[in-house]
């Protein structure tokens, strides 16, 4: 082959490879999102998330709200992507008192046009080729292995995951608070709160996986310091927390059961130690056209003494128990902007601890889906003359899939308040029951839900 | 030389045929513009993706190697996580 022919062949092959290589190098732009509209007729909520209304002669009324979430993922390849996630919340008619993370109006006002975009996640997710480990670095969601009774939140941090055969190990660090002022002359990282995570899961066989975790919180945000930015009350309300726990995921015939238990110890402050525990289980059994759901938990409470025996969390707003399928007793797993409960999402009931048991059935017939649930909650410990029973909820929901990804549904929920919330005197917990002899709370929820 | 000519012709054909995919023939209806159907650049929504992944995983080892099945299962978990994150009921 002459030199010209070789050159010609090289040019032809180059052109061919360039033409075929273009799609492989292209960035994949992945968009996902959701939109939910919710209308409530209720005597328990007013469009906000502090806590439910519990009063005698509580007024019933209607309000509506909407939420959109937009997720954009810039995927270079299967091993590298940037995940971004944003949220836009609005109550119909608008509200201008710093609603939902925005300052100023939430754009539900006349002629809209307000700033409402909230940033939820921005993180890099990549598989490191040399070690085969996955790394997530940045502002990302993280959930505990305990039904989110301890913590589920978007946080800034980094987490590494490595799988070796049947074992999956995870190591992570999150800085969820830093009150150090910008350019503080006291130096960086003086007033911080950090979470360290070590998580191991081992699949014994295809039906049984067991796990063990260690979480550690070091909270220095409330330290007295030369800086004037130190908050008077630190969040969380303890200095050092260790939490060790075990969990499992077991399939037995048509049933799936996830039991878990954890023990907490540490320092609330220099004079008081923490010694607390929790346990629970979530289960699902296929039955007929659907499934029976059941779940329950116990969070230890505090009677007062040298040790604080109350189960510790980070904030009430970052705890959940979605398997309960409640609407009022525990925040609903379908909630949007208004996401609260009888105890203001505080399942520790202000340190009293709690016991909750829940059961229900869910199923579908063609494009129609339905569920019905019942649940009971009480405090673990009573303080003073307070009673323990918080209430019993019954609820039901029926929905229809208008399209594959758009459903419309209606739900009703009613709570028979327990003595601790509808008492007439010092027997009630006044933090939640705003007046004596509070009415039983109820709600009717109408919903449109689109996810893509 | 003939080989060269064939290669050049093939590369030219491939290059020129790529843009043709994006257009419809003169006597064809543009279903993409008309009804958002058969769009060349359309992507799956999250439910479609979950359904497709489940369908492929069900084919099992008669179609995929164990490693490929593991990869599909990882992708299904990743997609489930995205949906769960989108629908998380935080306030």
Primary descriptors:
heterodimer, A: 452 residues, mainly beta, 18-stranded antiparallel β-barrel, 2 helices, 6% helix, 52% strand, B: 91 residues, mainly alpha, signal (chain A)
Sequence-ordered SSE layout with sheet pairings:
The complex is a heterodimer of chains A (452) and B (91).
Chain A: H1 3-25, E1 28-42, E2 61-77, E3 80-91, E4 117-128, E5 133-143, E6 152-164, E7 167-178, E8 192-203, E9 208-219, E10 240-252, E11 255-269, E12 272-287, E13 290-299, E14 307-308, E15 354-365, E16 368-379, E17 389-403, E18 406-417, H2 419-422, E19 442-451
Parallel strand pairs in A: 12-14
Antiparallel strand pairs in A: 1-2, 1-19, 2-3, 3-4, 4-5, 5-6, 6-7, 7-8, 8-9, 9-10, 10-11, 11-12, 12-13, 13-15, 15-16, 16-17, 17-18, 18-19
Chain B: H1 2-21, H2 31-35, H3 46-59, H4 66-86
Helix pairs in contact in B: 3-4
Number of strands of chain A: 19
Task: Indicate the multimeric state.
Answer: heterodimer
Give a quick account of the main beta sheet of chain B: strands, pairing sense, barrel closure. Answer: none
Anisotropy-based shape of chain A: globular
How many separate helices of chain B?
A: 4
The CA-CA distance between the termini of chain A, in Å, is: 57 Å
Helical run tally of chain A: 2
* Low-confidence spans of chain A: 18-24, 224-230
Sheet bearing the most strands of chain A, described? 18 strands, antiparallel, barrel
What's the Cα radius of gyration of chain B?
21 Å
């Amino acid at each position: 082959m002459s030199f010209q022919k070789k050159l010609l062949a090289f040019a032809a092959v180059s052109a061919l490879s360039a033409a075929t290589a273009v799609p492989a190098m292209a960035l994949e732009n992945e968009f996902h999102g959701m939109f939910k509209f919710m209308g409530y007729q209720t005597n328990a909520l007013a469009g906000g998330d502090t806590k439910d209304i519990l009063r005698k002669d509580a007024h019933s009324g209607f309000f509506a709200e909407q939420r959109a979430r937009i997720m954009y993922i810039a995927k270079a390849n299967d091993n590298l992507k940037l995940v971004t996630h944003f949220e836009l919340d609005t109550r119909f008619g608008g509200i201008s008192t710093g609603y939902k993370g925005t300052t100023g109006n939430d754009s539900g006002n006349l002629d809209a046009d307000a700033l409402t975009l909230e940033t939820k996640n921005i993180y890099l997710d990549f598989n490191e080729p040399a070690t085969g480990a996955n790394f997530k670095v940045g502002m990302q969601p993280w959930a505990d292995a305990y039904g989110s009774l301890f913590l589920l939140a978007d946080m800034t941090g980094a987490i590494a995951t490595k799988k070796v055969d049947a074992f999956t190990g995870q190591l992570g660090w999150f800085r969820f608070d830093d009150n150090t002022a910008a350019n503080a002359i006291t130096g960086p990282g003086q007033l911080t709160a950090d979470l360290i995570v070590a998580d191991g899961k081992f699949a014994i066989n295809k039906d049984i996986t067991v796990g063990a975790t260690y979480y550690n919180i070091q909270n220095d945000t409330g330290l007295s310091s030369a800086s004037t930015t130190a908050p008077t009350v630190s969040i969380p309300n303890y200095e050092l927390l260790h939490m060790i726990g075990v969990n499992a995921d077991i399939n037995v015939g048509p049933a799936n059961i996830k039991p878990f238990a954890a023990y907490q110890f540490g320092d609330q402050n220099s004079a008081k130690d923490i010694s607390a525990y929790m346990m629970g289980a979530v289960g699902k059994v296929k039955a007929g056209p659907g499934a029976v759901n059941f779940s329950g938990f116990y969070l230890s409470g505090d009677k007062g003494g040298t040790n604080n025996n109350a189960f510790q969390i980070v904030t009430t707003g970052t705890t959940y128990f979605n398997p309960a399928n409640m609407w009022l007793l525990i925040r609903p797993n379908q909630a949007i902007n208004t996401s609260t409960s009888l105890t203001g999402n505080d399942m520790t009931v202000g340190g009293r601890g709690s016991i909750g048991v829940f059961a229900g059935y869910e199923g579908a017939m063609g494009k129609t889906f339905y569920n019905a649930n019942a649940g009971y909650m009480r405090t673990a410990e009573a303080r003073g003359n307070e009673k323990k029973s918080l209430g019993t909820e019954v609820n039901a929901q029926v929905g229809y899939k208008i399209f594959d990804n758009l459903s419309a549904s209606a739900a009703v929920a009613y709570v028979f308040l327990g003595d601790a919330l509808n008492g007439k005197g010092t027997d009630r917990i006044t933090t939640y029951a705003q007046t004596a002899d509070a009415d039983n709370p109820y709600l009717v929820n109408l919903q449109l839900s689109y996810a893509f | 030389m003939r080989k060269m000519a064939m290669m050049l012709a093939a590369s030219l054909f491939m290059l020129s045929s790529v843009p043709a995919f994006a257009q419809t023939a003169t006597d064809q209806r543009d279903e993409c513009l008309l009804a958002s159907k058969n769009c060349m650049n359309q992507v799956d929504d999250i439910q479609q993706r979950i359904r497709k992944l489940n369908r492929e995983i069900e084919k099992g080892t008669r179609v995929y190697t164990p490693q490929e099945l593991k990869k599909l299962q990882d992708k299904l978990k990743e997609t489930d996580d995205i949906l769960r994150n989108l629908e998380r009921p935080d306030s």
